[in-house]
Automatic annotation (TrEMBL):
Name of the protein in its database record: Stearoyl-CoA 9-desaturase
Residues covered by the Fatty acid desaturase domain: 64-283
InterPro entries recorded: Acyl-CoA_DS, FA_desaturase_dom
Organism: Stackebrandtia nassauensis (strain DSM 44728 / CIP 108903 / NRRL B-16338 / NBRC 102104 / LLR-40K-21)
UniProt subcellular location: Membrane
PANTHER family: ACYL-COA DESATURASE (PTHR11351), BLL4393 PROTEIN (PTHR11351:SF3)
Keywords linked to the UniProt accession: Fatty acid metabolism, Iron, Lipid metabolism, Membrane, Oxidoreductase, Transmembrane, Transmembrane helix
Organismal lineage: Bacteria, Bacillati, Actinomycetota, Actinomycetes, Glycomycetales
A GO BP entry: fatty acid metabolic process
Amino acid sequence: MTTFTGTESGKTAPVGERTAPEPKPLTVGKQSTGTLMGLWFVVLGPFVALAVAIPLLWGWGVSWIDLAIAVVMYNVSGFGVTVGFHRYFTHGGFRAKRWMRVTLAVAGSLSAEGSVIQWVADHRRHHAFSDKEGDPHSPWRYGTSFGALMKGMWHAHVGWMFKRDMTNPERFTPDLLADKDIRRVDNMFGLLFATTLLAPAIVGGLVTWSWQGALTAFLWGSLVRIGFLHHVTWSINSVCHVWGERPFATRDGDKAANFWPLALLSMGESWHNLHHSDPTCARHGVMRGQIDTSARLIWIFEKFGWVDEVRWPKRQRLEKKMSGKYDRLRA
């Protein structure tokens, strides 16, 4: 005898004939004209700023105030991306208190790399299809020849953002869509974008009590700082999927690699091979000598009790993923 079960529509269907629900679409259309205009601004703006700032060095120089503002904003927004957007919201590498969740979402938004939900959706999609069809920014998209790889590097670094279908948040970030706090921060992205541009100029102007101080702080603390951080982040998508060491096994086709020259500037994100081998691990630099300042910050947060259930690396787990020619684990 066939067993039947009810459905939401009131109809019944044999249990043996039921099928899994269709997955939600991968993408949800093109990005808006406003988004494209903002993208052109953050890509070209830093170069314009450099063209203006460098000649000004001869007359005005760059002050310690400008440098301090740039360094502080770089670290706040950078760690907001690496610790917040990436290791926490995308991969769940630890659990955070409510105020810390909101703080990380706001700090990451100050990077001007996109709203928290869209950033996480893109990155989860990247991991689901790493270096395969469906990956939004694989440098191997066009093939393996030199010309194809150079074209792919441009695509992975910045080109993918200008001509793309938007990743579907309902498919990749239902957890964040269900979080009222994070949705609110996501909706405030325009305001936070304006804040990350204007706050350095306001601080520089008030500290020096001059329009000159406001201008130089805007050039170095806003535009140049944003551009520098963006190119470091984008290099993880491009450079770290082409060049570097691969001591840990990843899925077939995944070419994520460790690229040590970017370790400090990327706050540990360029230890990319381990990350793709064990995405939820809160520390990416797991071998001796691999500096990972994002992991150190998470450790500090844990000591203060602001985060818990941190997924620290386990030696036995790492050894199973590791090539036999490497033996520099510190876990």
